[in-house]
Amino acid sequence: MASKAVVVCKYWQRGCCNRYPCPFLHGGDNKWVREAKASNSNSNSNSRKTEKKEMVWRRTEEKEKEKERCLCKYFLHGHCKYGADRCRYLHAWSWSTGAHDFSLLTPLHGHCKPITAILQPSGSDKLLSSSEDGTLNFWDCHTGQCILTLNFGTEIGCIMTDGPSSLFVGTRDSVKVYNTENNTLLSLSGPAGLVYALAAHENKLFDGTQNGQILVWRFSPATRSFYPDACLTGHRQAVRSLVIGGDVLYSSSQDHSIKKPAWDLTTLECVHTLSDHTDAVMSLLFWDQFLISCSLDQTVKVWAKRDNGGLEVIYTHTEEHGVLALGGTFDATGQSVLSSSLNDHTVRLYNLPSFEERGRIFAKKEVQALQTGPEGLFFTGDGNGDLKVWKWSID
């Protein structure tokens, strides 16, 4: 190792050394200076080469790890010539950080167009799924068989239950109310365009429509029917999601301003408008007193209440692609997990509140429907019409 006496002072080279005496070399064009400069140059050059090699190695290792977590496109279409053992890409419909974090129980085939909504009513042994093909399927949770198909003859945008026997179906230009006990069907005419979202609070029914309106219907126990009560006109384009948290109705839209008004349910007035997203806000989720929103601007935002009653973004999670839908679930240990569907045909799963990635689910087309079931079950429905049942397990 070279002594300090033959190492050129870097401060002297810059003309700003203020130490006297300085333990490093100050001097002109002499042998010691030339040798010290050459030694430093070679040392720096070797160091840079080593750092460059390490960076290339780390980058290559990261790429190889990412390949192991990317779905093989040939496996996707059923003809990979390498097979699962030799292919560098993933031959599975999911991966997780745990050895047996979650797994695919079974696929359910019955729709021929994108699945728009999945629902399992509380305490029921039936699973419901709706599709753009105009059908509503009832699945037996024990056998996985489709036991009933209702054909509404037009695209279905959403479904919702309110009570043990009332099923609401959002279709084009109307909301259908189906009584599962006596198989009667009531049609609520008034929405303009496809109904994308439904919500209920006490004796009120809300539907978010394609023209940006939110229609409010009031239920009359005397006549056992609904009648129009109000029309909320805060959005300029389609209302994509409705969720109720506390006594507030939150709505998200794909309008250019990306507004998310919060409607006071007692006065039906818009009390707040949130505009932090820069593209269509596709889905809302209410989790542990927090509002979570996702958008085609490739972000998921977490909102918290301020002292004045408003909302502010406390965390923004950025994705690589636009986010289509959100779902909340719990793993086998009770950990809260957020599922986030992207328009690259994947679903990302994250622990809450850390947003630590838990795993990914792959599909042939975009997953538009996410739903949580009992006993660690959760469901995904994609644009290919495939409904998949997943289950959480303990490592």
Oligomer: single chain
Main beta-sheet annotation:
6 strands, antiparallel
- Can you count the beta strands? 27
Helical stretch tally = 4
Q: Overall mean pLDDT score?
A: 85
Q: Which percent bin holds the helix content?
A: 10-25%
Q: What does the radius of gyration come to?
A: 29 Å
Basic shape:
globular
Domain C3H1-type: 3-29, 71-94
Keywords: Metal-binding, WD repeat, Zinc, Zinc-finger
Organism: Rhynchospora tenuis
WD repeats: 108-149, 274-303
Describe the structure.
With 395 residues, the protein is mostly beta strands. It is 13% helix and 48% strand. The protein has a six-stranded antiparallel sheet with strand order 7-8-9-10-11-12, with no helix packed on it. The protein has a five-stranded antiparallel sheet with strand order 1-24-23-22-21, with no helix packed on it. The protein has a four-stranded antiparallel sheet with strand order 2-27-26-25, with no helix packed on it. It is globular, with a radius of gyration of 29 Å.
